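> run fold Low molecular weight phosphotyrosine protein phosphatase
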Amino acid sequence: MSSSKPEPQIKALVVCLGNICRSPMGEAVLKDIATKRGMDVHVDSCGTAGYHVGEEPDERCVECSRLVLQSLARQISTSDFVRFTHILAADENNLRHLQSMKPSNATAEVRLWGSYHDNKAIPDPYYGGLNGFEKVYQQCVRLSHAFLDNVVGKAETNEV
Ligand code: 4NP
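> ok
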């Protein structure tokens, strides 16, 4: 008998441009909320661009989310489209980029993260002030609940 833990049914990848602001914050918030809701979800993040590969998240994200952000920036790879069940784009530009590179064997559902809630993009906070980061944090909280509400029903009926 194997004692190894089963793989989570839901594997979500949060994607923004640089992977130093919105998506590392989204990754940490989604993980935190899934844990608090008792859901076993694997969460990661990446960027569509490679400008900041290897960098730690912007310190304004840490300040606003009050969570430990462990990710180091990485760029999306075609293998992500089969490794993850859900790819959550922060805005329409990133969604278009993802759709344009989606391989024919992709199994992940690729959507605007906001499409699980109000269809709104997460605005890029990089060149603005702390207030923009606070808004991103609040939006990530709402979108995490909306995403988990959506997938939980499907997971129960094996439609993930
Ligand atoms: P992110 O924010 O996509 O939320 O990580 C940005 C980070 C860096 C840049 C733009 C957006 N940049 O132009 O370097």
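The chain has one domain: 10-149.
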